[in-house]
Write a structure and sequence with these properties.
A two-stranded antiparallel ribbon has the order 1-2. α2 runs antiparallel to α4. The longest helix has 48 residues. The protein has six helices and two strands; from the N terminus they run αααααββα. It has 199 residues and is mainly α. The radius of gyration is 25 Å and the shape is elongated. It has one domain.
């Protein structure tokens, strides 16, 4: 058992952790370092990083060709439903019921596979980038960094303390920005596709 733990420790501390540290340093240099050189306040930096995460999510969605996969499933599902409806013309009730059961099982199996793939893509496209970037931000812009820069552990303080909040944290601003720009992105995408269909 000890050998097993030693192997896992070696994999994490000698392989995974150095890779994560290297990626963090790259991200710090590309985003936080370059924007700090341009004197962009940390609050704005977090919002810009949230926008970049949303853009990455949409690029990943396009690369995985989600729309085409969903269209293929819908076409197949409609065809399966139509084929199932054709069973009604079978005169023998016993045969008809057996065929209905077989058709329903096939439809259910395909739908369950589609649902599993749909949620996997959802996690991969929207949730995984969100949590990975949030973990990076909370590490690179942790409380000690913010206290050193501004004297408090928030990106900025809220004068009226709404709902007892003294200030806006990195996590809160990033999450709100990510959700807001994700909604904006979907609305723009919807508007673009509706104009494309009309044309």
């Amino acid at each position: 058992m000890q050998t097993y733990h030693d192997i896992l420790d070696f994999i994490f501390y000698r392989v995974i952790y150095p890779v994560l540290l290297f990626i963090r340093q790259i991200f710090d240099g590309i985003f936080i370092g370059s924007m700090s050189l341009l004197s962009i306040p940390y609050g704005y930096q977090v919002v810009i990083i949230a926008i970049c995460t949303v853009c990455f999510a949409f690029a990943l969605r396009k690369w995985l060709d989600v729309e085409a996969k969903e269209k293929i499933f819908r076409t197949k599902f409609v065809a399966q439903k139509a084929k199932r409806d054709d069973i009604a013309i079978v005169p023998d009730k016993k045969d008809r019921d057996a065929m209905y059961t077989s058709a329903d099982q096939s439809i259910d199996e395909d739908f369950n596979v589609y649902l599993a793939q749909h949620y996997f893509r959802y996690v991969l496209i929207y949730l995984l980038p969100l949590f990975l970037v949030m973990a990076w931000l909370n590490d690179s812009l942790n409380e000690q960094v913010l206290i050193t820069i501004s004297g408090h552990s928030y990106l900025f303080l809220t004068p009226s303390h709404p709902m007892g909040m003294e200030g806006v944290s990195v996590t809160l601003l990033y999450l709100l920005s990510y959700v807001f720009f994700l909604i904006v992105g979907f609305q723009v995408k919807k508007l673009f596709f509706s104009k494309k269909k009309k044309a």
